[in-house]
Amino acid sequence: MAQRYVRVQDLQGRIYYGLLQLNQNVQVLDAPPWLQGQPIDLELAPEGYQLLAPCAPSKIVAVGKNYVEHAAEMGSNVPKEPLLFLKPSTAIIATSTAIVYPPQSQRVDYEGELALVIGDRTSNCTPQEADNKIWGYTIANDVTARDLQQKDNQWTRAKGFDTFCPLGPWIVRELNAAATLQTFLNDNIVPVQSTSIEQMVFSPNFLVAYISQIMTLLPGDVILTGTPSGVGALQIGDRIRVEIEGIGRLENTVVAPATIIS
User: Fold this and answer.
1) Neighbour-count burial of 212, counting CB atoms closer than 10 A to its CB (0-12 exposed, 13-18 middle, 19+ buried)
2) Average of pLDDT values for 221-246?
3) Does a cis peptide bond (omega within 30 degrees of 0) precede residue 169?
4) Domain 60-259 CATH assignment equals 3.40.50.2000
5) CA 43 to chain CA mean position, Å
């Protein structure tokens, strides 16, 4: 099994990066792993920590319509260049936590995606250089208020609500280029989304290079690489699970705003 890099919070509220062991203990690191974090003499037992999203990026850069069939179901063609938008870092939540259905929307969709984690300061790099800038891979759900996306002239509101970027459960360093991405709704055994990530129009390396021509990517930043076809509506009470072969599963439940106490 590939090494699984996690970010956790202990019972005293301290946040650590670490390596998840087979027995679910976490071997704590002295820094984020992409900053050469090394193991220290501290190991947390499963009852001694809460799993967080695996990184805390300065920004989330997302890509729209990066699969031909998804672009078609949205009523358009794949753009000639990557279609970029930003999600705020405050939208990030961990696996097993709640997506809050905003009262402003009547249609909230799931969008399972492969996420890239940047490991080095990256500016004006080539696709060849980008291979060394991608530190690892995790899973994301680019939750979208579809009615607001269609209503607004830009996507910030539709994509930016708190809890609209489930991320995790951990990061792996290597990933098969033909890995399968699948999304499951509730107890259905048939996935609502299922594709190989090699079906992306613009590859991860190309995306990193393209984005780096526009903005500097910092260590720990996240790039969402686009969702395949099969996106659909979520209802309050639904459980949505995104799985990527070689990484794991990211599962969240949809709740009404009144169930969350700030």
Assistant:
1) buried
2) 97
3) yes
4) no
5) 26
